[in-house]
Amino acid sequence: MEKTALRNAIENNRDVTKLGEVASYIPELAKGNRDALGACIFDTGGNLLLEGDYETKFTIQSVSKVITLICALIDNGKEIVFSKVGNEPSSDPFNSLLKLEIEENHKPLNPFINAGAIVCTSLVAGDNGIEKFTRILNMIRKLANNENIEVNYPVFRSEKLTGNTNRAIAYFLKGAGIIEKDVEDILDTYFKCCSIEVDVEDIARIASVIANNGIAPWSKEMLIPKEVNRIVKATMSTCGLYDSSGKFSVDVGIPAKSGVGGCIMAVVPNRMGIAVVGPSLDKHGNSVAGIKVMESLSRALELSIF
Ligand code: DON
């Protein structure tokens, strides 16, 4: 049943990829394949399903913000993290600076907009950017059960060269006293996290751990403390797709996180992790066909938690 639903969701939505564009504001991302569409389900019983262009490699981009939040929460506790970043959805684009100046204490609205993720990056344990990055990369490798995950350095260099809006956000946060230490070092860590190269199986495995209350389905090892896992699921469900999070909740109804590399990571509590890749994006920066695939799967498998 799941196999058929996954196949139909991919094959019936291939044409939707033509309705969007590959991200080009980071020049290296423009090399992504606009037509690609692939998906993976990894369920909490440890079963794997792959469909469509599942071999497509892509950079994790903003899906990394989930793992950065996990590390920041484990390393600091929720009181410290949420004294520096809020939990409210944003109706602005992911890279917006608009609310930073007017919000109380200049706190970014949530951990999944760029400003909030830069704050969480600064909170991850480590004396410098390299140590913080190593902590996040190791967590991604553990959650994906894949020691071979690495950074795509051409994408990293491209992000670093063109990331002026992120630079403006980070210097503002430093001026407001929300981030400490060296701003360029934190930005390098943030850019490197976005540039980690993965495939849909890696992301579906990460999602399956979150779906399974923080326990890896393949080893039964507790990788995310239960309370951290609960906060992460809640934040994905309210803020995961930026200014289209509300619509996604109505149409699909499960915690999810998108990235401009074209991935959507989705968590069906106690059932499965799902990853879709389709680098063609809508105007919000979400995979245009990926959202349709998620809608089809949600209908066919009754995934909505609401
Ligand atoms: O900060 C940026 O511009 C990117 N490296 C990550 C943004 C992203 O994936 C937003 N997601 N939809």
Automatic annotation (TrEMBL):
Its EC number is 3.5.1.2. It comes from the Bacteria. Homotetramer. Signal peptide: none annotated. The gene is glsA. One of its GO terms (molecular function) is glutaminase activity. Keywords: Acetylation, Hydrolase. It catalyses: L-glutamine + H2O = L-glutamate + NH4(+). This is Glutaminase. Belongs to the glutaminase family. Substrate binds at residues 62, 114, 159, 166, 190, 242, 260. It comes from Fusibacter ferrireducens.
